Amino acid sequence: MIKTIAVIEGDDAAPEAMRPVVQLLDSLNMGLEWTYPEVGEVAEERTGSAFPPAAKAMIDRADSTFFGSTSGKTGVALNYLRWGKETYANVRPCRYLPGCASPLAQPDGIDFVIVRENLEDLYVGVEGPLEDLAPLNLTGRTIRKPVHQVGEGRFAIKAITREGTERVVRFAFELARKRNGKRKLTCATKHNMLRGTDGFFLEVASGLAADYPDVAFESFIIDDFACRMIREPQKYDVVVMPNQYGDILSDAAGGLVGSLGLAASGCFGDDYAYFEPAHGTAPDIAGRNIINPTAAMLSATMMLDYLGFEAQARQIEAAVARVYAEGVALTPDQGGEASTTAFCAAVGRAL
Ligand code: IPM
Ligand code: MG
Asked: How far from chain centre, in Å, is Cα 74?
């Protein structure tokens, strides 16, 4: 079984995390082929476009894409991977590995997954000056004047659709079925204030619960959930939420177990999925070979699962867990002194 993976290494320090992970996967000889779409500044200089058709074709031909973090021009490729490929379910696991530098006194047993709706909400990207809304003469539930008369300012559209919500919530229910254990889905929204949008998300989610009687369904207001996620993270299994809350809380969840360097991520659509560490490009440590590659490595194991290499995915996860448990080859964000490549070499030995 040969599978092709398009690799976009990303910007700043991101390639330093991506390269040794690709090398490690490659060394396992499981039949992976790597292609490297040219995107961003290099592509722009050579072809005049930061995302030329050849790069798009390479992503389309590949079985999946492995994406490092973007700070700038590689962002067009990210837009394509999300909105172009309709990868609507962003899966962000939060699992404590003993040995990680969690700030919590009792992090043992943290193992939940945020499923972030990945395409809608405020991220549809429709923004503009408030005065453009004058023809609509919109009044809100709280302010006392039509919104275009409030003063100079901007608006953003928060769009929550039935189809977009249904598919991500179904995905989250299915994930709760597949994960061994709690079979619980938690929905987090600001439905008390944003009744029309988040209220709709919750209404659609609650409506689907009847189709999954074997999964316990519960819902919290998002700000309350943020507190619960930190106070008692062990209680959660799969948590589904609209895009922006998922963006914010998944970074917070990374901090809960140790650092953003641990936060893996995969974006799933009906016929494509791509994988990316959730950390940013860490420009402050670029070029120093100290970025924590765990997020990239665990994103890669999610990709292996998706491509049908479950056994290898479990082996790599176990090797990563062992390196943390031993605690001798950890990167500086985890209190160690190892370089990125030394950490990966330790995982390779543990394999
Ligand atoms: C993430 C990132 C992205 C997002 C940025 C880079 C556009 O923060 O994957 O969480 O907002 O989704
Ligand atoms: Mg983010």
From this structure: 17
Q: Are 263 and 297 in contact (CB under 8 A)?
A: no
Helix axes 162-178, 198-209, angle to 10 degrees: 50
Report percent pLDDT > 90 for the chain.
Answer: 94
Helices (H) and strands (E) in the chain, counts: 11, 12
Nearest protein CA to atom 5 of ligand 1, as residue: 70
Q: What is the pLDDT of residues 291-347, one digit of tens each?
A: 999 999 999 999 999 999 999 999 999 999 999 999 999 999 999 999 999 999 999
Please report the atom of ligand 1 found closest to the CA of residue 70: 6
Query: In the chain, which residue ranges form alpha helices assigned H by DSSP?
Result: 14-27, 41-47, 53-61, 75-79, 162-178, 198-209, 222-231, 243-257, 294-307, 310-326, 340-350
Q: What is the pTM of this model?
A: 0.96
Closest-CA residue, ligand 1 atom 6, reads: 70
Which residue among 11, 88, 94, 247 is best mutated to probe the pocket of ligand 1, counting the most ligand atoms within 8 A of its Cβ?
Answer: 247
